[in-house]
Amino acid sequence: MTTTTWWKHGAIYHIYPRSFADSDGDGVGDLPGITAHLDYLSWLGAEAIWLSPFYRSPQRDFGYDITDHTDVDPLFGTLTDVDRLLAGAHRRGLRVILDFVPNHTSIDHPWFAASRTSTDDPRRDWYIWRDPADGGPPNNWRAVTGGPAWTLDPQTGQYYLHSFLPEQPDLNWRHPEVRQAMHRVMRFWLDRGVDGFRIDMVDYLLKDEHFRDEPLDGHGRYEPALARHQLNQPGTLDLLRELRDITDGYPGRILIGEVEYRLPLPRLAGYYGQDDMLHLPINFWLLFTPWQAHDLQTFVTAYDRALPGHAWPNWVLGSHDISRMATRLGPDQVRVALMLLFTLRGTPVLYYGDELGMTDVPIPPHQARDPWEGRDPARTPMPWTSAPNAGFSPPEARPWLPLGNPSVNVAAQMADPGSLLHLTRALLGLRRGHAALRDGSYQPVPAPDGVLAYRRTLPDEEMLITLNLTGAALDIPIPGEPLLSTHGETVGLLRPHEGRITLLRVAGQVSEAGHVLAGGG
Ligand code: BGC
Ligand code: MG
């Protein structure tokens, strides 16, 4: 594996810094907390970590509202803590990817403070200002967070655009100085040694130049997801090419991009450009595809075929914006889901705590923190031990969100070889050890109802992955030498909710695998 393609081979572990480990007892996770757990991440077998924002921020959207892109919020630590984290990670062979939030800043950013002072301030056009129309907002655009995307600023009598919260005004990426300023931000972190960025909300960077109203549906409404003018403008791809140019100046660094969740495949593929835009436009489709063998097989096959030869796939089963994997799929399917995530062709992204099967934690209304509501349950503190506060915060501290089930924690699962944590580690280890699981082509294999089966094939190595998505034990012959089961030892029957990886050595057995599975059940 070469140093420039590391991101194709290993798993990316997504850390929500507020919730990983609180070293100073203020109840909020921080950078030294992450550094203290790097050994855990390398033990697990992660290739890279991606950190949600830790920059200076009033935390109205928990760091996605930035007041200084090149400094650390005191809540999380200092620039020296970033350097220590980078050094510690790199020493262990772990790469570090930062969140880059280009679409908007905090309303408290000095750029916006200047911009709002007067219509001829030099920073005025760094943001998007429009006159009222008919005494109201300039057009009918809506914020992703709900409500109008425009807020009137009494000081100058104009409205500013915010695709998210009113406290997150959108930058004007058509302004060359804005682009240059944000390019400088990237260089600042690349020079410091980070290994790449996850770019927030790529589709929103450019808006319709004429600010046309969005078309309404039959009910007089429209969904931001269906919007035509507010996002996805043609020049966006050129902006990405510029970001890629900068990144390519630093060998081995990557750009991951958050794009719309249900992006049609041709558009998702378009974000790779000619290998001159995003290395990995995030594929969120596993979150929305019905958890049925047939639907999953259909999607995985279509995605694999939709990507051009130079494009490398990627897979996600959880994030800080949606309900936890174990809650969405139910506890029974978690093992099979992890086996799927780590055996598909492409880079897997694992959300912190999913290796333990963390579930959504119900948040009583008085403890809710997320301004959009609803995202807190998937952001609760990482449970490390069975101590008070689960070893996330010191015992006397008050974690920023309540903790989940105390029996689910790293220490308990480390001590149990049959745990989900050990399964995750075994899957990552297998991926490291077998080129077919990393680089092999993906071939769907016909299988009985409720079973998802595929081969990962290289000329001299081939794997069969067989996943039982049903609650029934299935009497199907599975060819090959068993390498790993989600359920420990391999027995004859495929147990309910069991997944299995077998090694098919000889090419001749391959087509037989298809027959055998298809004929069984
Ligand atoms: C992030 C969210 C954030 C939003 C606005 C999203 O893509 O994942 O957590 O609230 O962007 O920055
Ligand atoms: Mg702290």
Automatic annotation (TrEMBL):
Pfam family, any one? Alpha-amylase
Against CDD domains, the record matches this protein to: AmyAc_OligoGlu_like (cd11331)
Q: Which UniProt keywords apply?
A: Hydrolase
What the entry lists under InterPro entries is as follows: GH (IPR017853), GH13_cat_dom (IPR006047), Glyco_hydro_b (IPR013780), O16G_dom_2 (IPR045857)
The entry sums up its family as follows: Belongs to the glycosyl hydrolase 13 family.
PANTHER family the UniProt entry points to: ALPHA-AMYLASE FAMILY MEMBER, NEUTRAL AND BASIC AMINO ACID TRANSPORT PROTEIN RBAT
Protein name, entry field: Alpha-amylase family glycosyl hydrolase
